[in-house]
Amino acid sequence: MNAGAAGVGESSSQPLAVAPKCVLLAGGGSGGHISPGLAIAERMKAIDPACRPVFVCSQRPIDAQMLTEAGAEHVAIAAEPMSLRPRKLLRCIRSFMQGRAEVLRMIDQLQPSWVVSLGGFVTAPVVHAAQARRVPVLLMNLDATPGRANRWVARRAREVVSAVPTPTITGFAREIIGMPLRRLALAPAEQASCREQLGLLPGVRTLLVTGASQGANSLNDFMLLLAQREPVSFTDWQVLHLCGPSVSGGAARIEAGYRAAGVHAVVLPFLHRMGLAWGAADLALSRAGANSVGEAAANHVPTIFVPYPYHADLHQMHNAMPLVEQGAAALAKDAIEPEANLRALGEPTLRLMRDHAARHAMRARLQARSEPDAAERIARFLLGAGSFS
Predict the structure, then answer these.
(1) C-alpha distances out from residue 50 to 15, 16, 260, 342, 383, Å
(2) Does residue 194 sit in the same domain as residue 294?
């Protein structure tokens, strides 16, 4: 746990001070699960500075990195993804029981008024412990196709809301409320200022490439090959490339590839202030996690969404489809191999880089959309100042 919260989830004889309103937010394993929770916690503190949002996350490094940088109180518990392989299944069961015991102690000490489930494997022991202590659960579903964990939580939750429609499960959520977005995910300044803060050229069109918090090796390799094969297409463009923290060869390899191709690029493993990236961009090439889709829409950035290719049902595609159907975004399939992606991803990317009218039309359609502040609405509900009825 970070400073100011020592002892929660660990053995300690010292009683913890309890804020008037404590809420546990459970989720982790990827930035897509953490960011919406941070947005909710941010609005809670704005409404009631005395409240105490506490995150229960996984032991993956991305969780600690994001929560620590945000100054959020958090506890990492034992939790493992579900698997049918005997060894992994045994490890999953052991970690579930250990994590549940840790959360039971937390609940007894903190006396939270709600548990918010943000999805992912870490939520199961938290929700199970909440049930045992009769703490109500709010499920914040983030994807158009609810995963196995969310379907399990939904049967145990008092309230179920969703960021996006769930066409595969009719009536899954009480209400569709939009994606909870952090304020730092929104552009903080004009385009030229955002570019300058990132080390980009202020007056040059910018292509944002992002594989979300974990990065995407297939997008990294594709972009290097595209820059090598089509350097002339980048004459009036520069690239802001978020390559992921564990990219093979590091960000330096990606940066060197652009430099060899004569393409001006700023390459970063990860960017905490995503609003700067969206604010700098004229066009984006992005994975289609619900958080990425929500951020692109809120910042009015024309985007080519590339769903994660290793999901059997390509469920990220459903996250992007509402924007695609409105002509406010494009969709492309990740062929994984760089040469194959020159056609699958290269053609739509180069087409939109060249077609200024098409990009402007997409941006206008995004600007015409009206999105409520989902994070504030959830925060008010959790603090007893709002409802979903």
Answers:
(1) 18, 15, 53, 53, 11
(2) yes
| DSSP label of 125 | H
Which range of residues forms the domain containing residue 197?
A: 185-368
pLDDT in tens, 71-88: 999 999 987 766 667 777
| Contact assessment for residue 371 and residue 297, using Cβ atoms and an 8 Å cutoff | yes
Q: Is the dihedral of CA 123, 124, 129, 133 positive or negative?
A: positive
Residue 8 within a domain: no
By DSSP bridging, strand 159-162 and strand 74-76 are: unpaired
87: domain CATH number is 3.40.50.2000
List, as one string, the DSSP characters of 175-209: EE------GGGS--S-HHHHHHHTT--TTSEEEEE
Is the Cα torsion angle 297, 174, 134, 60 positive or negative in sign?
A: negative
Categorise residue 250: left if φ over 0, alpha if ψ from -120 to 50, beta otherwise.
Answer: left
Helix 217-229 to helix 346-354 angle (10° resolution) is 60
Q: How many domains does the chain have?
A: 2
Domain identity same for 84 and 217: no
Give pLDDT tens digits for 320-351.
Answer: 999 999 999 999 999 999 999 999 999 999 99
Same domain flag for 58 and 145: yes
Which stretches in the chain have pLDDT values below 70? 1-20, 81-84, 213-215, 312, 389
